[in-house]
């Protein structure tokens, strides 16, 4: 606490106001010394007062510093707690990252193993696919061969047959007799009955608006060919004559018919053998 400045000593004896100079001159020396000492004391007391004020100010500043130090200590403690939390979280995340890394490594190993298994399976599947394709190709070729063999069988079974077209139908007609008459009259074969044997003849399909062709079976392939070769006499007529062929062969011939007509128009002796065009005794190829 700041002390109030000292005043002059209460017991100090001041000279009376009406004292004369003679009286002052008669004051003892020790009195002057006493006054001097008192003045020195007052000066020192003033300095002490200033020191007290300074000390009080310093005390205030020390208190302020203590408060700030305490605040800094509290903030430092909070920072330490936060730092410890961050450190704990870092360690926790580091542990989790290591666990995740281990899991990724295990997954990669599993994927590599599965990839190897998949590659092995793919190789097996490729080999099996190739075998299946080869087997399928063999089956396809075999099926094609069987199909062609069947067509050949059908052709051979009908090798003695011819089909006559556009012969008018009659009620209660005798197809065999009608066929003989057709050969004699239209195919220009007057000795037909003596040289050619017809085993049987009948209309093909159900009766309708269109004239049904007559299927004729001859006694031999040679007799059939003799009749077929006279088919040239039907040129410029509505009648027709052909071999009895399987439907597949007829479709193939129909596709090649424009080429056959073109060759004939060019003067080539072109004709069908089975489902191929032949020219001059050899198979024609573009």
UniProtKB/TrEMBL annotation:
Residue spans of biased composition, Polar residues class: 1-11
UniProt region (Disordered), positions on chain: 1-24
Protein name: Uncharacterized protein
Species assigned in the record: Mytilus galloprovincialis (Mediterranean mussel)
């Amino acid at each position: 606490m700041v002390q109030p400045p000292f005043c002059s000593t209460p017991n100090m004896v001041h000279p009376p106001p009406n004292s004369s100079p003679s009286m002052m001159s008669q004051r003892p020396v020790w009195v002057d010394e006493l006054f001097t000492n008192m003045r020195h004391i007052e000066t020192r007391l003033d300095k002490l007062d200033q020191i007290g004020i300074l000390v009080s100010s310093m005390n205030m500043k020390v208190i302020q510093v203590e408060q700030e130090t305490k605040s800094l200590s509290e903030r430092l403690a909070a920072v330490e707690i936060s730092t410890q939390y961050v450190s704990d979280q870092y360690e926790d995340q580091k542990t989790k990252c290591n666990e995740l890394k281990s899991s990724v490594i295990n997954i990669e190993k599993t994927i590599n193993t599965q990839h190897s298994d998949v590659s092995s399976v793919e190789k097996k599947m490729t080999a099996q696919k190739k075998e299946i394709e080869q087997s399928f190709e063999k089956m396809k070729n075999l099926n094609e061969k069987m199909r062609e063999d069947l067509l050949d069988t059908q052709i051979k079974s009908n090798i003695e047959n011819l089909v006559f077209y556009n012969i008018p139908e009659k009620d209660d007609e005798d197809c065999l007799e009608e066929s003989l008459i057709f050969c004699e009259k239209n195919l220009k074969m007057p000795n037909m009955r003596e040289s050619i044997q017809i085993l049987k003849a009948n209309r093909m399909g159900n009766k309708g608006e269109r004239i049904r062709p007559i299927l004729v079976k001859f006694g031999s392939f040679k007799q059939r060919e003799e009749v077929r070769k006279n088919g040239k006499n039907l040129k410029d007529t509505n009648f027709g004559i052909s071999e009895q062929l399987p439907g597949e062969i007829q479709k193939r011939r129909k596709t090649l018919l424009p080429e056959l007509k073109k060759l004939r128009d060019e003067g080539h002796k072109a004709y069908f053998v089975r489902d191929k065009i032949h020219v001059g005794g050899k198979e024609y190829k573009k």
